[in-house]
Amino acid sequence: MITTGSANVRPDGVGAGKSAGAIRGTRSQALWLATLGFFGGFAGVSIFGPLVPKFTDLLHLSPFEAGILAAIPSLTGAVLRIPFGAAVDRVGGKGPFVALLALTNVGVLGLLALLATSYPDHMAGTYPILLLLGSLIGCGIATFSVGIAQVSYWFPKRRQGGASGIYGGLGNTSPGLSTMFLPIAVGGIGMLGAYSIWFAILLAVTIVYALFINDAPWFQLRRRGKTVEPAQVAALGGSELAPSGSAMAGLKFAAGVPATWALVFFYFISFGGFLGFTTWLPTFWHAVYGSSLRDAGLLTASFSLTCALVRVAGGLLSDKLSIRYALPLNFVLIAAGTLALGLSETFVLSLGATLAIGVGMGLQNSIVFKLLPSYVPGAVGGASGWIGGLGALGGFIFPPLLGFTTGMVGGPHAYSLGFLPFAVLAVGSLPVVFWLGRWSTSRKPGANVAASRQPA
């Protein structure tokens, strides 16, 4: 067994002793490289959506076919978060993350080839190909659950909030920034040139991540046949969390912890809502206030960037301040903002409401993964797979739900009133919040659940 003895520890957590010297990489390196990788993967997804209206016109797609095409990256990214996130418990984060980025590169490269050879005059019959390319590009979304588990195994519990906030928050700026700058690039150098730049960035991100990232100390030591007590791994630069060692075991264990499903529900509303609103708001701004497509994109970017940047601040604050009352207050803010948006008849109130919703969702996104290691310490990868995967399904479900409600309501205020079901869902989460505040677990794989009171 490896012991840390009295080895000195550097500020980044890597010991200076002989045992610690065998650990490659540092916490800060892992955090920034994982954030870069997630940013790049998410950027790959961001370039697919703007093409869907053009493909719809060229292929004469029905609304249903167009909706499936627009949503297929979100669906793939959500579903793949589950197995790839769980795989971190078995093999570490590097392998699964590189595999997802590689698949995203294949999808974007295929899209470039299609644009170069078939767009716009020879697109007939390419719908199945577009679905396949959209599915591959959606792999970039799935990098989230891999990276969040990877970061969790590098950082001790007391620093989980800040690390996950930086990772998720800065990574989530990718859609907003792409929404702002992609139209400018297309106008300046043409569609093929702009999309080629996005592919070059994605490829560079993939190479940098693959060359310089290292798995957390626990995985490095296991590959060398060495063992160490979980509490001692933190002194070697990692987390005190010990993974289950099996992807399936991690999923099964996490699924058996009731708190996992509460966190899934919270993330379904906050991150699924973030994806769904980002998809739906351009339509809302254009339909209700007559915004141009460019202005609607900028207004949507203000929401998505607010949500992403607040997630960073929320994560950092959650390491320093009590978050006992943060969950209910965030859902109240989300519900109030959505209610105001649903009843608003002025542009200023609608804009303010969307920004308030973005603040609430950003804070909630950071807090969910701050709580994760405390509630499911034995299978962070498995739990992050469930939470990230099923939570992200909101991005696939909410736009059709909002659209269906809008169609059912009808009239001049239909697009505004269409948000009201989301407000009801946010209010309905409050009983789950209060239940979770009375429950926690220290269960380990193979052990019985030991319930104890631990305030959220």
Structure description:
There is one protein chain. This protein is an all-alpha fold and 456 residues long. It has a single domain, classed as Up-down Bundle (Growth Hormone, Chain: A), CATH 1.20.1250.20. It contains 21 helices and 2 strands. The chain has helices at 18-21, 27-46, 52-59, 63-91, 94-117, 127-137, 139-152, 160-171, 173-212, 217-223, 230-233, 247-255, 258-289, 293-318, 326-343, 347-375, 380-392, 394-409, 414-417, 420-428, 430-436, and strands at residues 440-441, 451-452. It has a two-stranded antiparallel sheet with strand order 1-2. Helix 5 (94-117) runs antiparallel to helix 6 and helix 7 (139-152) runs antiparallel to helix 8.
Condensed summary:
The chain is mostly helical. It contains 21 helices and two strands.
> Mean pLDDT, nearest integer?
81
Q: Number of helix segments?
A: 21
How much helix is in the residues? over 70%
Write down the CATH topology.
Growth Hormone, Chain: A
Unreliably modeled segments: 1-20, 441-456
Which architecture does the CATH hierarchy give at level 2? Up-down Bundle
CA-based gyration radius: 22 Å
Overall shape: globular
* CATH secondary-structure class: Mainly Alpha
CATH superfamily: MFS general substrate transporter like domains
Total domain modules:
1
Instruction: Name the strands of the widest sheet in spatial order.
Output: 1-2
Biggest sheet record: 2 strands, antiparallel
